[in-house]
Specification:
Blueprint: E1 4-7, H1 14-29, E2 35-39, H2 45-54, E3 60-61, E4 80-81, H3 86-95, E5 101-105, E6 111-116, H4 117-130, E7 132-137, H5 138-145, E8 148-149, H6 152-155, E9 159-166, E10 182-186, H7 190-198, E11 203-207, E12 223-227, H8 231-237, E13 256-257, H9 262-272, E14 277-280, E15 286-290, E16 302-306, E17 322-328, E18 342-345, H10 351-361, H11 368-381, H12 392-405, H13 409-416, H14 426-430, E19 434-439, E20 442-451, H15 454-458, H16 461-475, E21 479-486, E22 491-498, H17 500-507, E23 515-519, H18 524-536
Parallel strand pairs: 1-2, 1-16, 2-3, 4-5, 9-10, 10-11, 11-12, 13-14, 16-17, 17-18, 20-21
Antiparallel strand pairs: 5-6, 7-9, 8-12, 14-15, 19-20, 21-22, 22-23
């Protein structure tokens, strides 16, 4: 069954990562095994400390949710080797009547060509006209004729070729087979058998007959085989011994890979209008066949969003996916769905507080390690309960999870915020917990870093501002903000790029050199974005 991805926002923080893990664990514990925790970016050092502390691996990284070829119900017919007989290939078509073409591969599994029913029909018609069998392996001939070898010359023969002739009694010898390059089909006809062996024809096929005793040790280079089929049927079947590698189409092939986007595939299909297209994996090996009908209704990837509900913060390709649920504690934003979905949005300080309630609703207790990790996520998102977004429910939930995990919240909080920022590049600090917003026609980005020593980070202010100016110019932001939330100071140092008046009016402060300290400001969601929203209307 296809997975249901549970993912937080881009540049995920600890609450986002843990929420994805916890909600997947909850749903899978209730019997729905297809839920998979996912993330949209690198796990921060803070989050890695929490994961390592409680023995969890980071969620699966996903780049996007665009519909891909792998999401289509494409055909998976048998993949034929170049040496397979036309007869065997036709049997495969009979077993799969809905299939119009099958891939032909080289020995290493890579694509050689495409064999269609039309290719076989064209070959059959041309063989009727020429009556000449090109050099084919003897094993192929024995296979299609269900034959067996009758003489020593046959044991030494590897390939046969020649004009196929049914030897009937003739009054005029000139009308009989004359060339050595002949494949002669006959019944129990001693005169014809003798003539064929004397001329050392390429192959003598005895149809529904055995070799007369007098010819068992006849000195000849002719390969003698016998078949249970009559001469008319054998004459038709023998042409089915040709390897499909000679019959299939190898020119102008257009194929796709499993990771190709469906939208791109549609454009190619409209351009070329081939009846079928081979599908290759990442190693260029053939895995299936695609037709235009497979593009009509692709299977959409399924996803649950946690800790966000804003398109600019979510996974690329969300519009092509099937959104099942949203579990969040932020403002309602701009994500739209084609039908009703389950949404749980509550005014608390952490998504994990909501998910802990959902464990309770289902009468399920999280494991010790999972409970400890959820407690750490609540501490992280509420800045050790100092954020204005923190509620009594967050505190009670964190305390309960800590009791289950047998951990100290004070010790856990200090471990979380001890991740040093001094040795991190400005890019890593700026984009670790980075979110973009669109408010009343204004575009902005706000990054937040929680630390215990913001002064050391401010020593590199110029490097951060240079990077922020570059990013704002590239993305067309009206404002870009870096929040250095200091747990010990119980406030936030603001670095910003944009209009000074915007900062002055939004927060009622006097900024200086693109910097300002906001006491008691700990929350991006509740104390920064709302102020800008009010300012811009």
């Amino acid at each position: 069954m296809d997975p249901i991805y549970v993912t937080g926002h881009r540049n995920p923080d600890t609450d986002s990562i843990v929420a994805a893990i916890a909600y997947s664990a909850l749903r899978n514990a209730c019997g729905e095994r297809e839920y998979v925790a996912a993330c949209l970016g690198r796990v921060s050092d803070e989050t890695q400390i929490v994961l390592d502390r409680f023995g969890f691996q980071p969620p699966r990284y996903i780049a996007d949710l665009y519909n891909q070829v792998r999401d289509l119900d494409f055909d998976t017919p048998p993949i034929l080797s170049t040496g397979v007989t036309v007869g065997r290939a036709w049997d495969e078509f009979q077993d799969y009547p809905a299939i119009t073409a099958v891939p032909v591969s080289r020995e290493n599994g890579t694509l050689y060509g495409i064999l269609s029913r039309t290719d076989i029909a064209n070959y059959n018609m041309s063989s009727i006209t020429s009556c000449v069998l090109d050099e084919v392996p003897l094993f192929n001939v024995l296979s299609v004729l269900e034959g067996k070898i009758l003489n020593e010359a046959g044991e030494d023969t590897d390939t046969v070729a020649g004009e196929v002739t049914i030897a009937l009694p003739q009054s005029n010898e000139n009308l009989l087979f004359q060339k050595q390059e002949s494949i002669v089909l006959c019944g129990y006809q001693p005169d014809m058998i003798r003539r064929a062996l004397e001329r050392n024809v390429s192959c003598l096929v005895l149809c529904q007959a055995e070799l007369p005793m007098e010819f068992r040790d006849f000195p000849t280079k002719t390969c003698i085989i016998t078949t249970p089929f009559d001469a008319y049927r054998a004459a038709r079947l023998i042409f089915q011994s040709t390897p499909v590698g000679r019959v299939c189409n190898t020119q102008g092939l257009v194929g796709f890979h499993l990771d190709d986007r469906v939208d791109d595939v549609r454009e190619v299909v409209l351009k070329y209008r081939h009846p079928s297209y081979p599908i290759l994996d990442e190693h260029e090996k053939v895995v299936g066949i695609l037709t235009r009908y497979h593009l009509l209704r692709p299977r959409r990837k399924r996803v649950v969003l946690v800790d966000h509900n804003e398109a600019s913060q979510s996974v690329p390709g969300l519009e092509e996916a099937e959104l099942l649920e949203i579990i969040d504690h932020h403002r309602l934003a701009d994500i739209q769905t084609s039908g009703p979905i389950y949404v749980r949005n509550e005014p608390v300080g952490s998504t994990n507080t909501i998910i802990a309630s959902m464990f309770q609703d289902r009468g399920l207790m999280p494991s010790e390690n999972l409970a400890g990790m959820m407690a750490a996520a609540i501490l992280s998102d509420t800045v050790m309960f100092k954020s204005p977004t923190c509620t009594q429910r967050d505190i009670r939930t964190a305390e309960r999870m800590a009791r289950i995990a047998n951990v100290s919240l004070d010790e856990l909080g200090k471990a979380i915020f001890s991740a040093a920022l001094d040795n991190k590049a400005p890019e890593e600090v700026l984009f670790t917990d980075y979110k973009e917003f669109h408010i009343a026609g204004h575009s902005l980005a706000v990054s937040q870093v929680t630390c215990v020593d913001s002064s050391s980070v401010l020593e590199r202010k110029d490097a951060f501002l240079t990077l922020m100016r570059k990013t704002a110019k590239e993305k067309g932001f009206d404002l870009m903000v870096l929040m250095l939330t200091d747990v010990l100071l119980e406030g936030t140092q603001i670095l910003y790029v944009g209009d000074d008046d915007t900062i002055r009016q939004a927060f009622n402060v006097t900024p200086k050199d693109n910097t300002v300290f906001l006491p008691k400001v700990m929350s991006r969601k509740k104390q920064v974005i709302p102020m800008l929203s009010d300012l811009w209307g």
